[in-house]
Structures are given as structure tokens and as C-alpha cells.
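Researcher: Next sequence.
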Amino acid sequence: MTAPYLEPSTTEFHHVSVLGPEVLQHLALRPDGQYLDATVGGGGHSQLLLAAMPKSRLVAIDQDTQAIAAACSTLAEYRDRAEFWHGSFSQFDPGDRRFDGILADLGVSSAQFDIAERGFSFRLEAPLDMRMNLQQSLTRPLKLLTTGKKSSWPIFFY
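Model: Next structure:
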């Protein structure tokens, strides 16, 4: 199985979810369950869940706009049972909703590493950025680090 990746020359998000059967097994799926994918990414795990449980419903969250766009495309056939939220799961208010299972695949995907302009890559030459949500402004420490002034670097290596 291959890791998720993003074609460097495009903005198309290609994703193959790993451990799909294990994720479904540990979510203890219910046929009419309500599920939250707190980090939907390309939508691979959510697609497996919705396909396995045809009466289930899903809330899909991601702060990466490219990931949300990819998930919307991947899950298009399930739109009547899926709702999408752009933002951080930490800011999501479920209101009175209760979920039968929550999936959070935390971390950076190789889809984010494979586009130099995203600023995550350790193999491609590009300015450091590391924002999951490109609509957010750079933080002060990140601005200092990206200025190229070596005098600001030690604060990150102590």
C-alpha cells in the first residue's frame, strides 16, 4: 500500500488510507451510527466508513483547504450523509450531537510534504511555513525563523 501523496506539479490530492480495516474494526461501527472524522484529509477513511455503513452519517473536519476540497470530491457520492467543516477540530462545537465513533489521524500527511510551497518539506527547497490552514497568518516565531537571520535561530534549538 502506498502512502498518501500530492502530485508536486498539481494541486490534486491523491490519498490511499493505511490501516483502513483496522480503523473500521476499532470504531465498532453501527449501521446507523453518527461519526466524526476530526482530520478528514483526503477522505479515505471516511469513504471506507460510509461505504461499510450505508445508513451512517459523518461530520468531516479539516483545517487544510486542499484536504477539505479533496474530501468533498472523494465523498461526493455520500454528500447526503456527510457534512464538511473547514477549520480545526479543537474549535468544532458539536452542540447536542453525540457521536458513536471519532477518528483523528493526527499529523502531517505526505500530501503536505510533497508540495514545496506548503513549507513542510524536509526534502524540497522552500521557505518554512508549516501552517495546516494557509488562511491563517504566520506566527511571530515562524516569521523570525523564515527571515533568514541566524541570530533568531537559537530560540528554536535550545
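Model: The two ends are 38 Å apart (CA to CA). The chain has a mean pLDDT of 79.
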